[in-house]
Structure formats: C-alpha cells, structure tokens
Amino acid sequence: MGFAMWIPTQDEAIEMYARFLAARHGRAAAKYARLTADRLHARGDFAGHQIWGLVADVIERRPPKRAKVDDIPAAS
C-alpha cells in the first residue's frame, strides 16, 4: 500500500509563509519578510531574496484585519 505526499507549489508556499508571518508578526510581517530578503541578498542568495520579496508583496497586498465586534471591550 502506497501513500500520497503533497508538495506545495512555489506560489502556495509563498501564500502559506505570508499567512504565517501575518499571524505571528501582525503589522510587522511585511517588514520582517523584507529584512529577511535583504539579509539573504547580502549573503548572495538571490533566489531566496526574490522569494522573500514575493512573500512581503503578498502580505502588503492583503487587506488589514478588522477587529471583530466581540474583540472590542464594552464601554464602562
């Protein structure tokens, strides 16, 4: 009996990293991705620089999260 393994495409991986960074770093997610891209570029990793730049682009294109009504404290 065999098994199937899912390997994400490059676009799917970029989307996954963008969602993860946005969840983990909030508003600073795009900045984090750009800093990572810059560090990779400085090391000569131009492919990594390009990918992390694309991750930052995806984060920046996403609409900002809105607070849910339940998350807003009631006025006293």
Summary, kept brief:
The chain has 76 residues and is mainly alpha-helical.
Description:
The chain has 76 residues and is mainly α.
Total DSSP helices = 3
Q: Please bin the fraction of helical residues.
A: 55-70%
Q: Radius of gyration over alpha carbons? A: 17 Å
**Low-confidence spans:** none
Q: What structural class do helix, strand and pairing data support? A: mainly alpha
Averaged pLDDT? 89
- Oligomer state equals single chain
Summarize the helix and strand pattern as letters: HHH
Largest sheet: none
Give the number of DSSP strands.
0
**Alpha-carbon distance between the two ends:** 63 Å
Q: Give the overall silhouette.
A: flat
Strand proportion, as a percent range, falls in: under 5%
Task: Describe how the helices and strands are arranged.
Elements: H1 10-25, H2 29-42, H3 46-61
What tags apply to this protein structure?
mainly alpha, 76 residues, single chain
